[in-house]
Amino acid sequence: MSNPPQMRTTKRCAVVGGGIIGVAVARELANKLDDVQVTVYEKEDRLAAHQTGHNSGVVHAGLYYEPGGLKAKLCRRGVELLQEFCAMKDLPYEACGKLVIAQSPEESTRLDHIFARAVANGVPGARMLRGDQIREVEPNAVGLSALHSPETAIVDYTAITNALAEDVRSSGGTIRLGQEVTGLEQQGSGVVVATEEGGEHYDLVVACAGLQSDRVAKATGEAATPRIVPFYGQYFLLGEEARDQVRGLIYPVPDPKHPFLGVHLTKRIDGEMMLGPNAFISFGRESYAWNEVNVRDVLNYTLFPGFWNFARQNVPSAVREFQTVVSRKKFIREAMRFVPSLEGATVLPGTRGVRAQAMNGDGSLVDDFVIARRRDTVLVRNAPSPGATSSMAIAEYIVEQALQDR
């Protein structure tokens, strides 16, 4: 059976951004369209240089997300696609499991609501545990109750991105490293992608620009909000002698009074055990050290009224997070609430990431995925966690929608 006519009209496609979502979109375009030329533009000299290469490596099962929302739908589909892809490419995929532990009656009540969401979202094997059952899963963990997600997994997202890129290249696609996109200009038909080397015309452009997504969107004529406000997260690594204190992932119960989750324990695919991350305002969208200051980025959020609305609404959270920034002991004490046996453990500085947090003008944080369309350009404006987990499903969704509209 021949392809529908609308699927033959798109011949040249460009993707802006070489993180896992951008490369997954490029692969999906190459797979779904006949005789298509796909080009990925990445300003760095390697793929997965920013959020993809600095995250925790967790494949989220879909516990927290509002049933029916894009996050819930695309997370579960994303897990299936990641599992299949890792098996096909012989990439590591470890279902180490996750405990979300409540330490108070109030947290236990909130955890019951999360469990209801997990069931509604079809999270496999999700179950509630009493306090005395926690040790059956994590022998050194303590709490009043817990939600166990045995299928929550860990992977290497950088390796997955590179494997996706191999498929793009083998399909005849091109990945241009070290080429920053400086403009997207809609024509009568199609879009011109501008770089320092000049402009090229494409029938369809998908922008997956992560930390720069609002700037790319604004350059196409879209609204300036939601605005990206960067928050950094610092991880620490447990010393080798303490790694076996935790088998998988241990998370706190999200507190609606705080916009960010707080310190948790995460096993990494290479066997390291991470503590963190905290969350505090970053001095640059791509600043991975405390002394890296990007004045343009700082001015971008300090002149944004939404940021100050957010700050006023979250003073207690800022105090909590700042304590973990300035005191490693405070950071470790947060983890010891769940695993007391970590007392005295060696803790070393680990990786540091910057989260692209989309914020509305009133200071509220954008929670769900936001994917906008402006004629021949698709804009991924917000893809927070579980963005990496959902990457291949987001790609399916974007390409399906784009083809329907053409």
Structure report:
This protein is globular. Helix 1 crosses helix 11, helix 2 crosses helix 11 and helix 9 packs across helix 10. Residues about 1-10 have low confidence and may be disordered. The protein is built from 11 helices and 20 strands. The chain has about 400 residues and is of the alpha+beta class. The longest helix is centred in the N-terminal third of the chain and has 20 residues, at about 70-90.
Ends: how far apart? Answer: 20 Å
Helix content: 25-40%
Beta-strand level of the residues, as a percent range?
15-25%
**Helix tally?**
11
Quick one: biggest sheet?
A: 9 strands, mixed
Shape: globular
Write down the overall mean pLDDT. 93
Radius of gyration: 21 Å
- Class by alpha and beta content: alpha+beta
Count the strands?
20
Give the oligomeric state of the chains in this entry, treating copies of one chain as homo and distinct chains as hetero. single chain
Low-confidence parts, pLDDT < 50 over ≥5 residues?
1-8
